[in-house]
UniProtKB/TrEMBL annotation:
Name used for this protein in its record: FAD-binding domain-containing protein
Keywords: FAD, Flavoprotein, Monooxygenase, Oxidoreductase
Superkingdom to which the source organism belongs: Eukaryota
Entries under SUPFAM superfamilies matching the protein: FAD/NAD(P)-binding domain
Organism of this sequence: Extremus antarcticus
GO molecular function, one term: FAD binding
Length: 376
C-alpha cells in the first residue's frame, strides 16, 4: 500500500469553493497539486478582493445582518448578524468567494473529467480532451453531479430536492430598497408552509440604486412535474409564477419581484439536488471527495459553502500530518471521511428538514436558535 511522501502530488478536480480552499492550503504548505475545472473560467476570473471587502456593506461600514419574517403574517421573527450574534459575519456570494480563493492559483480550465485509473503508485485522471494527469491522491471537488463520485460510488446518485427554485435579480431605487435594508443590512429571508425565500443586496450601483438578488422555493404538488415545468417554462412564465407565489408577501418584497420582469429571471432555474451518502467511509484507494460532491444540500441553513470549506481544512490537515508520519494514503483519506461524511450527512438532512418544515421559525435555518442558545 502506497504511503505519503514529501513528493506527494494532489489532483483536485473542480475549482469551486471546496477545491479552491484545499488548493490554497496545500499551496501555503508547499504541497504539490494541480487543479482542474470543467468550465471556461470566465465567471471566476477578473478582480480579486479580501474577505473584509467582499460584503456589499464594506463601504458603508454597516455590519452584515439578515432579517427573518413570517411570509403570511409579515411579522419579524428575528435578526441575525455580527452585531446580534456576537460573532463576525461576512455575507458573500459564491462567485465572489471563488474569485478570492482563486488568487495565485493556476486553475486549468475546460478540463472535463472522463474517468480515472488507480494503480500501485497512485492515480491517473483522464480528461475528455485526451490529456491526462498523474498524482498520489485524486480529490473530487466537482459538485453535486460529481464525475469522481459517479465512478467511485457507482451506481449511487444524488436525489432531486422537493423544493423547486425560482431566481431573479432586480435594480431597486433607494425608496424601494430602504424598507428591506431597514430590517436587515443585507436583506430578508421569508418563510411559511410550502414557501421559503430570500431577497439580498448584491451590489451598490449609482447613487440611490442597488442590485438585489432574490430566490423563492415552493413545495406543492408533484415535485417532478414542477421541476419539469420550471425547466421548460419561458422567462415570462417563470416570472408569472414568481409573482403568483409572492403576491401576498410584504409589498417591499412582492413589488420587487414584479419589477424584476421576465428579463431578470434566471433560465433555467437552479435545480437543487441532495447528496446523502449511506456509508461512513469510501472504498480503499487514493481517491476521495469533498464539498457538494459529498453532501450537496438545499440552501435553507446557509451551511453548504461553510461545510465545504471545513472539508477542505480537514482533508488538508490529514494530508499534511500523513506526509509527516509517512502513513498509508488510503488510511489518511478514510480517517478524513470518517469526519466528513457523518457531518455532511447531518447538514444535508437538517437543511432538508428546514425546507420541508411548516414552522416559520425554521426560515432562519437554525441561526436564531443558535444565537439564543449562546446568549443564555
Amino acid at each position: 500500500m502506497a504511503t505519503l511522501q514529501s513528493a506527494v502530488k494532489v489532483l483536485i478536480v473542480g475549482a469551486g469553493v471546496s477545491g479552491l480552499a484545499l488548493a490554497q492550503i496545500l499551496r501555503k504548505h508547499g504541497i504539490d497539486f494541480e487543479i482542474f475545472e470543467r468550465d471556461d473560467g470566465k465567471s471566476s476570473q477578473g478582480w480579486t478582493l479580501d474577505l473584509t471587502q467582499a460584503s456589499p456593506n464594506q463601504a458603508s461600514g454597516h455590519p452584515d445582518s439578515l432579517a427573518f419574517i413570517n411570509g403570511r403574517t409579515h411579522d419579524l421573527i428575528g435578526v441575525y448578524g455580527s452585531d446580534t450574534s456576537g460573532r463576525p459575519m461576512v455575507m458573500i456570494d459564491r462567485n465572489s468567494l471563488r474569485r478570492i480563493l482563486s488568487k495565485g492559483l493556476n486553475v486549468q480550465y475546460r478540463k472535463y473529467l472522463s474517468s480515472y485509473e488507480v494503480d500501485q503508485s497512485g492515480v491517473q485522471a483522464i480528461f475528455q480532451d485526451g490529456t491526462m494527469a498523474r498524482g498520489s491522491i485524486l480529490v473530487g471537488a466537482d459538485g453535486s453531479r460529481s464525475r469522481v463520485r459517479s465512478q467511485l460510488l457507482y451506481p449511487f446518485q444524488a436525489v432531486t430536492s422537493k423544493a423547486v427554485i425560482l431566481n431573479g435579480e432586480v435594480e431597486l431605487t433607494q425608496s424601494e430598497y430602504e424598507p428591506i435594508l431597514r430590517l436587515g443590512n443585507n436583506g430578508v429571508l421569508f418563510g411559511e408552509p410550502g414557501l421559503k425565500g430570500a431577497m439580498f443586496i448584491g451590489e451598490w450601483l449609482d447613487v440611490g440604486k442597488a442590485l438585489f438578488h432574490w430566490t423563492c422555493a415552493w413545495l406543492d404538488g408533484d415535485p417532478e412535474q414542477n421541476h419539469a415545468w420550471s425547466e421548460m417554462a419561458s422567462r415570462e412564465e417563470l416570472h408569472g409564477k414568481a409573482v403568483q407565489l409572492t403576491v401576498h408577501l410584504p409589498s417591499y418584497l412582492a413589488d420587487a419581484v414584479k419589477r424584476t420582469g421576465p428579463a431578470g429571471m434566471q433560465k433555467p432555474p437552479i435545480k437543487l439536488v441532495e447528496t446523502v451518502l449511506k456509508v461512513d467511509r469510501l472504498p480503499d484507494g487514493p481517491v476521495t471527495i469533498l464539498g457538494d460532491a459529498a453532501h450537496s444540500m438545499v440552501p435553507f441553513r446557509g451551511m453548504g459553502a461553510n461545510t465545504a470549506v471545513l472539508d477542505a481544512c480537514d482533508l488538508a490537515q490529514h494530508i499534511i500530518q500523513g506526509i509527516g508520519d509517512g502513513r498509508e494514503t488510503s488510511a489518511i483519506l478514510r480517517a478524513y471521511e470518517e469526519q466528513m461524511i457523518p457531518r455532511g450527512r447531518t447538514k444535508v438532512l437538517e437543511s432538508r428538514a428546514d425546507a420541508e418544515s411548516d414552522s416559520n421559525f425554521d426560515v432562519s435555518g437554525g441561526r436564531l436558535e443558535r444565537m439564543k442558545g449562546e446568549q443564555r
